[in-house]
Specification:
single chain, 212 residues
Length: 212
């Protein structure tokens, strides 16, 4: 449980964790088009997360929590946003379902903690999800466009975690895996194998440069 949403438990209670979208994505080594896309994705994701949190509050007031309905509603909403930015494949369908299940479960388990129902949490999750989904989109597009290699790039400041700093500038085959700490990734924030290692996912600003 909590594999995807465990990142929300990292950090001090009640401490603001989200970073304004223009600042967060503005720091990353992305094109202006990519930054704008991630900001837009984050804003749409934040909106439906806030709706779900409001729905949870309403259900709580009436003592009528329906976890299955909440999970299904969140999954449908999330796939709607994802589908506006990229094609939905089996990986994304599975990811959206698992994210939704873990998000709802974690929220209900921490219903007494005000942060889990806050706007800050909605924004924090939204910016993380933008990187997760759009990094995957760019990976799929790079393969389809005939790119053969990829280079991991960090932001090269004191906030970059040691396990990611070791990968800065490392180039491997496009379908090969980066060894990131105790897990492996195809690209930064790839949850396929790293979902049990949130310490490698939370707030990651690393990017990939694709090479033909």
């Amino acid at each position: 449980m909590d594999e995807f949403d465990e990142i929300n438990k990292l950090g001090e209670p009640y401490k603001k964790r989200a970073i304004p979208y223009d600042e967060y994505f503005g720091e990353m080594e992305l094109t202006e088009e990519q930054k704008e896309e991630r900001i837009s994705f984050s804003e749409e994701t934040e909106d439906f997360i806030k709706f779900i949190l409001a729905l949870i509050l309403a259900m709580t007031d009436y003592n009528a929590i329906d976890e299955d309905y909440l999970t299904e509603t969140l999954t449908t909403s999330y796939l709607g946003v994802i589908g506006a930015y990229t094609g939905i494949d089996e990986y994304l369908e599975t990811y959206a379902a698992e994210f939704s299940k873990d998000f709802i479960g974690t929220t209900l388990e921490n219903i007494e903690d005000v942060w889990y129902l806050s706007d800050d949490r909605a924004m924090f999750d939204a910016e993380n999800e933008a990187n997760t989904i759009l990094n995957y989109k760019e990976y799929v597009m790079a393969i389809a466009s005939g790119y053969t290699q990829k280079e991991w790039r960090t932001f090269r400041d004191s906030r970059v975690r040691k396990t990611h700093r070791k990968l800065d500038g490392k180039t491997i085959g496009i379908k090969s895996l980066f060894e990131v700490g105790k897990t492996f990734m195809r690209f930064p924030k790839d949850t396929k194998m790293a979902q049990t290692h949130p310490e490698e996912l939370i707030g990651c600003r690393c990017t990939i440069h694709y090479i033909r």
